[in-house]
Amino acid sequence: MVFNLFKKAKLEIYSPVNGEVIPLEQVPDPVFSEKMMGEGVAVMPTEGNVYAPVDGTIIQVAPTKHAIGISAKDGSEILIHVGLETVALKGEGFQVAVEVGEKVSVGSLLMEVDWDIVKSKAKSSVIPIVITNSHEDSKQYTITDEKNAISGKTVILTTSGK
C-alpha cells in the first residue's frame, strides 16, 4: 500500500459534448489560444447538450449561463466555456441544470444549449475546456489524439503529476 504514495495522480477529463477535438491554440480568441486562463483543449460541438467532464463539485455558474466551473477531486478547477463572446447573449440559448455546491459525475447534465441561437448570435460555438489553476501546479497535460469526441465517453485531456 505504501507504493501508492509514490504513484502520480492522474485525472481524465472527458468531452462534455459530442464534437471535433481541437487544440486550445486553435481557438479564435487569444484569452484561450494563448492559454492566459490555463491549459486545456477545445471541442467544436456537433450536437447535444453539455455534460460534466469529470466527477467533482460545481464551483461557478456564470450569471449569463454560458460557463460552468467544476472542482475535480484532485483539486483541478475546470472551466467549460460554451462559445465565444456568448456573454453578450445574456443567457439566451442556455438552460443551466446545476447550481453551485452541487456534486456531479462524468456525464451529469450541466446545461441544455440551443445551438441555433449560439451559432447565429455568437462569434463561435467552440467550447474551450480550461484548467484555470494549471499555472499553480507542475502537472503534465496530455491532449488526446482522437479527432472526434463522444460526450462522457472520449477522454480529451489527461493530467498527471502532483
From TrEMBL:
Its lineage reads: Bacteria, Bacillati, Bacillota, Bacilli, Bacillales
Taxonomic source organism: Cytobacillus spartinae
PANTHER family documented for this protein? PTS SYSTEM GLUCOSE-SPECIFIC EIIA COMPONENT
Can you say what this protein is called? PTS glucose transporter subunit IIA
InterPro entries referenced in this protein's UniProt entry, alphabetically: Dup_hybrid_motif (IPR011055), PTS_EIIA_1_perm (IPR001127), PTS_EIIA_component (IPR050890)
Q: Which UniProt keywords apply?
A: Kinase, Phosphotransferase system, Sugar transport, Transferase, Transport
Matching entries from PROSITE patterns are given as:
PTS_EIIA_TYPE_1, PTS_EIIA_TYPE_1_HIS
The PTS EIIA type-1 domain is annotated at 29-133
Keyword Transport found: yes
Localization (cell) = Cytoplasm
This protein's record includes keyword Kinase: yes
Q: What is its main location?
A: cytoplasm
